[in-house]
Structures are given as C-alpha cells and as structure tokens.
C-alpha cells in the first residue's frame, strides 16, 4: 500500500492506495484542525499513523506548496500555514516515524504526476499541467519523468509567465503574471469588480457560471476576457515545452463545459505546432485527489 498526503491551503487530503492505483482510503480534513493546537508536523504524522494503522505501507509522500529541496526533503520556504514547516526535514521525520521510504514534493508537480499516471495525461509523451486555484500551479512531465530544471522552481512557474508587460506587479517581482489574471482568486475578483450583484454571495464563480448557463449576455464579456488571457498563457507553455497534452485542473475547471470550447479554438488558432491543432487540451480527471495520487506514486 502507498500513502499520499496533500497539504493544501485549506484542506489536508490523505489517501491510501493499492499498488495498482485503486483508492482504499481517502479522507479530507480542514487544515485548521492541524494548526489550532500542538505542533503542526507532529499532528500531520499522527494523522498519517491513524489513517494507515490497519494497512501495511510500502512507501509514502507529502505534496506541499512552497520551495522543496526534493533531495533532502527540507521545505526551504513557504507562506501561510506551510511557513510553520519551513526549515524542517519533512522527509526524514515522516520516514522515521512511519518506517517507510518517504518523498516530499511540490504540490503542482505531484498533481501533474497523478494526472500523468492515472488521469488525463496518461500515455502522453510530454504533458503540461496547469491548476487554477488560489494561485496558478504548473508542472511538466517529459518522457515519463517530472521536469526539474536546474533548481527547485524548474517547470513550476507557468503561472508567472507574463501576459501583459504593463500589467500589475506580482509578488514574485514580475509584471502581468498569468496568475494575476487566471487563478481562481483572480477570476473571482474579476467577476466581483464587474458585477456588484455578486457582493453578498460567498461562492461567486458557481453563481457566475449559472448566469452563463442561462445565457445572460451581459456576463459573457468577462468570460471571454478570462479565456483570452488563459489562452495566452497556455500557448506560451506549449511553445516553451512542446507538449502533446495540456491538462487543466483546479476549482475553476468545474465549469469546463463553459470554458473549454472557445478556449480550445483560441489555443489552436495561436499555437504554432506541427501539425497545427496537435496539442490536446484536457480537463483533470482526478480533480482534488490528483496531488495525493501523484505523491503516493512518485517514489
């Protein structure tokens, strides 16, 4: 059996998977349950032990955002709750306490590996995976291996491709980053700023796409602007990495039926590939389970 833990910005997802990829256990807990009392790392390890106590584990892994030294297993830097783990050797701690080989990896790369092994990227030669969530994740799989580049950020910065040199300054130091326009956070702000009627709605994007579903014309320009910006980012990734498949995931893609048709048209029109239109644009098949799947099978 394999253990996969996905440390997200809001939730912790924990899965036990058989060697052939079948989920045996999968559970989701609020992150605050791990941070409100005691030591975060101790709580994560205790949860892993509790979930796996009735199973014989062969290996395990933790997917987490931030800068991971994949060789040592140290989280070099992170923000939010992840900052409580910065500087700690997570690989060593989990491996010692669970007595199994253990891997720690960036969550975007783990998500991409999950989709490559068991989801929408299965069988691809080169795959780019982009996740539209709180931020904008990106990772690349080439010839059956995750792409790393020369440092811990290699292949992960698709969300920081600039699509507007005169755009707003990003915390990364660049201007006009794709993340500022096409993450779920940015899309929500886009809708909120354009339509005051969404002011008192907690979950804005489902309400917005309900308007799109009802073909209410005044909302379509915002959708078109989002698609135009996302197409630029995807085309740039296609030109940079030469994939045969691009997988799009994250909460925004729960409304893929409204996003994909025009988006694919734009991408095929703009992407210089041989032959034209060769790159398949797909939606994540594993959804919120992808990173837990990926990290469980990365080692």
Question: Can you describe this structure in just a few lines?
Answer:
The protein is of the alpha/beta class and 299 residues long. The chain has ten helices and twelve strands. It folds into two domains: 2-110 and 290-296, Nucleotidyltransferase, domain 5, CATH 3.30.420.40; 123-283, Nucleotidyltransferase, domain 5 (2-Layer Sandwich), CATH 3.30.420.40.
CATH fold node name of the largest domain:
Nucleotidyltransferase, domain 5
CATH class of the largest domain equals: Alpha Beta
Number of helices: 10
Overall structural domain count:
2
- Following the backbone from N to C, one meets helices and strands in this order, namely EEEHHEEEHEHEEEHHHHEHEH
CATH superfamily of the largest domain: ATPase, nucleotide binding domain
Distance between the termini: 13 Å
Structural class: alpha/beta
Number of E strands: 12
**What is the alpha-carbon Rg in Å?**
19 Å
What spatial order of strands do you see in the largest sheet?
A: 3-2-1-4-7
Outline? globular
Helix coverage percent? 25-40%
What are its keywords?
globular, 12 strands, 21% strand, Nucleotidyltransferase, domain 5, 36% helix, 2 domains, five-stranded mixed β-sheet, 299 residues, alpha/beta
What does this structure look like?
- The protein has 299 residues and is α/β, with parallel strands linked by helices.
- It folds into two domains: 116 residues, Nucleotidyltransferase, domain 5 (2-Layer Sandwich); 161 residues, Nucleotidyltransferase, domain 5 (2-Layer Sandwich).
- 36% of the residues lie in helices and 21% in strands.
- Strands 3-2-1-4-7 form a five-stranded mixed β-sheet, with helices on both faces. A five-stranded mixed β-sheet has the order 10-9-8-11-12, with helices on both faces.
- A hairpin with a 3-residue loop joins strand 8 and strand 9.
- Helix 2 packs parallel to helix 3, helix 4 packs across helix 10 and helix 8 crosses helix 9.
- It starts with a strand and ends with a helix.
- The model has no long low-confidence stretch (mean pLDDT 94).
């Amino acid at each position: 059996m394999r253990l996969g833990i996905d440390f997200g910005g809001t939730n912790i997802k924990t899965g036990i998977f058989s060697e052939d990829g079948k989920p045996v256990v999968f559970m989701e807990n609020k992150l605050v349950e791990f941070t409100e009392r005691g030591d975060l790392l101790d709580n994560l390890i205790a949860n892993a032990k509790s979930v796996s106590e009735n199973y014989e584990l062969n290996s395990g892994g933790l997917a987490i955002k931030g800068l991971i030294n994949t060789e040592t297993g140290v989280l070099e830097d992170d923000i939010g709750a992840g900052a409580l783990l910065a500087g700690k050797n997570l690989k060593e701690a989990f491996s010692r306490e669970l007595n199994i080989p253990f891997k720690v990896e960036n969550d975007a790369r783990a998500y991409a590996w999950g989709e490559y092994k068991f989801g929408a990227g299965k069988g691809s030669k080169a795959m780019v995976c982009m996740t539209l969530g709180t931020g904008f994740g990106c990772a690349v799989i080439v010839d059956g291996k995750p792409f790393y580049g020369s440092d811990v950020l290699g292949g992960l910065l698709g969300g920081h491709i600039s699509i507007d040199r005169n755009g707003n300054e990003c915390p990364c130091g660049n201007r006009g980053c794709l993340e500022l326009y096409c993450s779920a956070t940015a899309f929500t702000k886009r809708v909120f700023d354009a339509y005051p009627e969404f002011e008192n709605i907690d979950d804005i994007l489902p309400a917005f796409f309900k308007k799109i579903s009802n073909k209410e014309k005044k909302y379509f320009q915002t959708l078109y602007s989002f698609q135009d910006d996302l197409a630029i980012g995807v085309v740039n990734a296609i030109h940079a990495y030469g994939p045969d498949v691009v997988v799009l995931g994250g909460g925004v893609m729960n409304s893929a039926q409204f996003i994909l048709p025009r988006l694919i048209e734009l991408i095929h029109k703009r992407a210089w590939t041989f032959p034209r239109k060769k790159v398949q644009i797909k939606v994540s098949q594993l959804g919120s389970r992808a990173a837990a799947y990926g990290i469980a099978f990365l080692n």
